[in-house]
Amino acid sequence: MKNTVVPRIVCCLFGALAILSTISVVDARQASALPEGRDIVARHIAAIGGVAAQRAIQSVRFRGRFEMPQQKIVGDFEMVAARPARVRMRIGIPGIGQVEDGYDGRVGWSVDPLAGPQVQSGRQLLESADDAWFDRDLLEPDYVRTLTTVAQAEFDGRRAFRVQVILRSGSESMQYFDAESGLGIGSEAMRATSQGTIPVVQVTRDYRQFGGLRIPVTRIQRAMGVEQIATITGVEFDVVPDQAFALPPGVQALIRP
């Protein structure tokens, strides 16, 4: 999050979070033998439960534990998300207070005890809108411009396919899919922050079944030498009310004409 002791969790928890990887790219002569990006994504979608299972869900609530091990920070988090592109994250940290950020379909924002309320603009707002897209994990054509398999690589200790993803918004990332299971296991991207545009690596681990979907319950992110770990302990579907995405009063005050 902007200007806070807790950097913003870049990717909404329904999607893909990370440990820096060691990448061994295959020789260019092997590129023609690699599976198509769309086929890799289709295998991932089947592995998590399929399009119908994802489409059946209108909203989701995650609860769990948030950690920054090096800083010895531990807290609880709650994240809610709903169609088509709304999300809100709360992290409660003892001795610091509550850190929040969200996107309500139009406004990207954050509130924390040190910086107070802030409203996003430019690239940060664009990336928040992309992250909030409820079906982002499906990487469908209305969300993604191109999917290009670049190489085989080792990521988080596993053999994976490295796929360049360019969204309709113009945002780019490299996403990794386990060659054995087909599941998405992480990503690398340049992300806009209050400290400038920085490289962010994310990893997703420990897929478990919740209803008709398999969801990774361990999500790790590393940026600027800071590691964040989110461990999901509870998942609820279709229980999130619309008012959960209402802008905090301090944010509303910033956007009033």
Which helices and strands occur, and which strands form pairs?
Elements: H1 37-48, H2 51-55, E1 59-68, E2 73-82, E3 86-93, E4 97-103, E5 108-112, E6 116-119, H3 122-132, E7 144-155, E8 158-167, E9 172-178, E10 184-193, E11 196-210, E12 213-223, E13 226-237, H4 249-255
Antiparallel strand pairs: 1-2, 1-13, 2-3, 3-4, 4-5, 5-6, 7-8, 8-9, 9-10, 10-11, 11-12, 12-13
Overview of the structural elements:
This protein is mainly β and 257 residues long. It has one domain: outer membrane lipoprotein receptor (LolB), chain A (Clam). Helix content is 14%, strand content 47%. It has four helices and 13 strands. It has helices spanning 37-48, 51-55, 122-132, 249-255, and strands spanning 59-68, 73-82, 86-93, 97-103, 108-112, 116-119, 144-155, 158-167, 172-178, 184-193, 196-210, 213-223, 226-237. It has a 13-stranded antiparallel β-sheet with strand order 6-5-4-3-2-1-13-12-11-10-9-8-7. The longest helix has 12 residues, at 37-48. The radius of gyration is 18 Å and the shape is globular. Mean pLDDT is 89; it is low at 1-29.
